[in-house]
Every structure is written in C-alpha cells, then in structure tokens.
Amino acid sequence: MVHVLLRRNWIGRLRLALTLFGLPYTVCTPGVKYVTDNNVTQSQLNATHVKARCSQYPGSDVRRFPVPDDKVNWSQSWAQYNPVRYTSLAVLKKPVWADPDISSFSPKFNTVDGAVDRTSFEGSYKEENGKPLNPHGRTGLSGRGLLGRWGPNHAADPIVTRWKVDERGTKIHHSVSKLPILQFVAIKRKDCGEWAIPGGMVDPGEQVSLTLQREFSEEALNSLAVQPSERAQIHERITKLFKSPGFQAFKGYVDDPRNTDNAWMETVAVNFHDDSGNSVSELPLQAGDDAGQVQWVDVDSSFPLYASHSSFLELVAKERKAHW
C-alpha cells in the first residue's frame, strides 16, 4: 500500500509541475483501470485513451505530438495541433495483412469492404480528408504506425483460465480476499517485453471463434512447430475447450500504444475456462514465434499487463467469482 501511495504522490506532483508551467501531460501508468460501459463521461473516455498517447511510439524513435486531456476529443477546436506522420517501413512494404497507402486506393469505411471488415464496435466513426478518425480522439500521431489497416484493426484475445489448486486438487483461496485464485495463460511479447493475453489479428473473412482458437494454439502451444502426432492431440483438446460456452469479457476499442489518429485496435476478448483442470491444463505450454515466454499466471490486480488486458481479466475474475 505504501508504494502505491508514493506513486500517486509522485504522479500528482508531476502533474502539478507541468500545469504550473502550462505544459500538457499524459502519464502512462501500469494497472490503469479502463471503462467498458458505453454511457461514459468525456473525462472517463479520455481515461481509456492513455497508452495511445504515450510520448514515444513503440518500435521507433518517433515521438508523438503532446495531446493534453482537454484536447483529446475531436470536437475541441485546436488549430495548433500538428500530429507527427508515421507509418512503419514494415507496413509500407505492403505485406498481405496491410492496406496500400490511402492515396493509391479508395477503401469503404464503416462497412465490410470486400473481405475486410472496416466497421467499428464503437459505432460509426468520422472521416477527414479521406482518412478515418480514431473514435477516442487525438493521439499525437497520424498515419498507421505499426498497424496494417486504416481505421479499426480487429483482433481476438482468448483468455484461457483454470483454478489454482494444491497437490490434492483443492482450490487455493487468497489470504486477503478469501476468494479462489484463477490462473490464466500469459505470453511475454517479444516486441515490448510486456506480459499479455495470447491474441492476434482476425484474418479477412475469418470467424472470430476460429481466430481465438488459432491464436491460442500458435502463440501458447506453438502448434505450428510440433510433431503431427502432438498437433492432433493439441487440436482435439483445444477444439473441445473452445467449443464450450465462452464468456465474452470485452468487445470494443483497445487503449493500445500502437494506435494512431487514423488506425486503432479493437478486440473481442473471450474467456474459456478449464473448470475441471483436465483439458488444456495438461498440455505443455510452449511459446510461439510472437511470444518470448508463456506460462500460467495468477490472476491478480497487481500483475501489470499489456494495453487494456488487465481490465479484461478483472471482468473475468468478477464473472467467475474469483480473487482480483
């Protein structure tokens, strides 16, 4: 508790100093709680748009144009706004998962454009000069950054959980909350070193249910690299678990550090729970290409996670009546 209070005091002093000097600020802190209700105030909306305004864009030396909280909303007039324009070289090389530059094709936004779903879970989004505008406001950076699609980039995040048990198979309860402890499969991302839910992008025309199963198999079980006999066993158990009724923890905009003014992440996060502990729990975890490490991790509010993933797990813990 002491370290939390010290951190809050430090953040408060920093904000006060910046305010006295008339400078904008956006402090990125771990463990930020994100609002998922649609009926939110503007201040709550800005609170869900924090990591998308962190000063340095991931995987680059590019620094965003600073956006203060009161200038996030596009409805706020701001003639001085001059976002940095940046799209990574990896995207500009035109891989199959990326759109061409906006000047060379005419995408149809707010609809299904061929095989690419350009609709947003946030509802209809605005366009300006032929480019889509981030529904959560300014980020200090235009272009696509590391994201392939103009507008929403759809992902799926499978949250696979089990109960933490002792050697006799009895559920372990937390000493403070007295609630049973959940564990989930977490990967350590290679790109930023943060722990995360093993998710990935929805392919054009792909059902989200298939994305959830595919991404978990590839990232947490490294199904692409195992022997055919092992792959069959993995497929059988994964299919059984992912055919069970899952709990949709979240569906919407993700406060992701890769977001820009014109491209942003949205996801569907679904919890698949191995209640008996004899399904996925018995499979050996093995990190795939995008993951540096993979392991079962206790679900706990003190464990920092990538983007908005902590908020997804909080909803899962509440649904399962587990410790958070």
Explain what this protein looks like in three dimensions:
Its EC number is 3.6.1.13. It comes from Mola mola (Ocean sunfish). Hydrolyzes ADP-ribose (ADPR) to AMP and ribose 5'-phosphate. Keywords: Signal. It catalyses: ADP-D-ribose + H2O = D-ribose 5-phosphate + AMP + 2 H(+). The protein is of the alpha+beta class and 324 residues long. It has a domain of 166 residues: Nucleoside Triphosphate Pyrophosphohydrolase (Alpha-Beta Complex). It is built from 6 helices and 13 strands. Strands 7, 8, 9, 10, 11, 12 and 13 form a 7-stranded mixed β-sheet that branches. A two-stranded parallel sheet has the order 1-6. A hairpin with a 2-residue loop joins β4 and β5. The longest helix has 19 residues. It is globular and about 65 Å long. The N terminus is likely disordered.
Give the topology, please:
Blueprint: H1 2-20, H2 42-47, E1 84-87, H3 89-92, E2 112-113, E3 116-117, E4 127-128, E5 131-132, E6 141-145, E7 151-163, E8 182-189, E9 195-196, E10 200-201, H4 208-220, H5 228-242, E11 247-253, E12 263-274, E13 291-298, H6 309-319
Parallel strand pairs: 1-6, 7-12
Antiparallel strand pairs: 2-3, 4-5, 7-8, 7-10, 8-9, 8-13, 11-12
Helix pairs in contact: 4-5
